[in-house]
Amino acid sequence: MSSLHPLIALFENRAEVLDATGQATHADDAIVKLASWMELAKTRLTEDDMAVLADIGAILYRDSLKRRMGGKP
Known about the structure:
The protein has a domain at 24-70. The protein is mainly alpha-helical. The chain has helices spanning 6-20, 27-41, 47-68. Helix 2 (27-41) runs antiparallel to helix 3 (47-68). It contains 3 helices and no strands.
């Protein structure tokens, strides 16, 4: 039995599916999907929802930028 939170386990499972199907996805793909979904859902999301999702997008963006710059801050 896994001690992972069910949503973390879902993320892990989806990552395994992406790997198994050979989908070459990157953080930039996740950023675009997140931004697109946020735009579509903005009338249904609270300010707190948007803030949390914006933080997630910022983390992905920052990590992706660092990777493109060769790990430099």
